[in-house]
Structure formats: structure tokens, C-alpha cells
Amino acid sequence: QVQLVESGGGLVQAGGSLRLSCAASGSIFSINTMNWYRQAPGKQRELVAAITDRDSTNYHDSVKGRFTISRDNAKNTVYLQMNSLKPEDTAVYYCYVRLYNTRSLRVEAYWGQGIQVTVSS
């Protein structure tokens, strides 16, 4: 089937940077949307950044100017470069992709397993 593997999280001081990666593999023909969400303790999951197959991007207001989403279609990978991190960015980050599955012949959505990002003050 399809697997999503996230990497790049960890602990960083305020003002620091991290780069998250999410690599998709399996029965993939093409990937449409690739998004990053986050969920902080006690809060709902929120969309952080999104990128379409035409490289159109969208960001949550709180991360505009600090985070950059990008994708490498040859590697089926989406990245989230996070700069000027703040303690309020602390959350579990999830990647989300919508893709055309060559086995089911359907457009399907998948979530990554989540990766912790902790920003200390």
C-alpha cells in the first residue's frame, strides 16, 4: 500500500530552526496535495501549511514568514522548513497527502504517524 515516514523533529531553543520531511512510498501514481498539520496538547489539529501539485502554497497566519513548505515530486517528499521557532510552535506535526493509488485506482488520503517538535523558551 502506501507509507508515510516523517523525520526531522526534536527539541530546539526559541529562535532556532528545524526541517521536517515526510516521504511517501508504495503504490503511488501521483500526489496532489501535501500538507502539514500540528496538534498541541489540549488543542485541535490545525493546518500549518499546504502545497499543491502546482506548487501553490498556503500557510496558517501564525507561521507566515517563518515556515516554508516545499516538495520534491521525484522523491514523493514534502518538507517544512521552520525558522524563528517559538514555544507556541510546540506540537506533534503530521503530514497529510492526497494521492492517486495505483492499486485501488482511487484518490486516497493518508496521514503520517506524527513527529514531536518542542521549542524551549
Q: Could you please describe the fold and organization of this structure?
A:
With 121 residues, the protein is mainly β. 0% of the residues lie in helices and 62% in strands. Strands 2, 4, 5, 6, 9, 10 and 11 form a seven-stranded mixed β-sheet that branches. A four-stranded antiparallel β-sheet has the order 1-3-8-7, with no helix packed on it. A hairpin with a 5-residue loop joins strand 5 (46-51) and strand 6 (57-59). It starts with a strand and ends with a strand. The mean pLDDT is 97.
Structure class = mainly beta
| Rg (C-alpha, Å) | 14 Å
Uncertain parts? none
Number of DSSP helical runs: 0
Q: List SSEs in N-to-C order.
A: EEEEEEEEEEE
Please report the total strand number as a whole number.
11
Shape: elongated
Largest sheet: 7 strands, mixed
Helix share bin: under 10%
| Intertermini distance | 41 Å
Measured by DSSP, the beta-strand proportion falls in: over 45%
User: Mean pLDDT across all residues, rounded?
Assistant: 97
List the helices and strands and how they pair.
Layout lengths: L1 E6 L2 E4 L4 E9 L1 E12 L6 E6 L5 E3 L7 E6 L4 E6 L8 E11 L4 E6 L3 E6 L1
Parallel strand pairs: 2-11
Antiparallel strand pairs: 1-3, 3-8, 4-5, 4-9, 5-6, 7-8, 9-10, 9-11
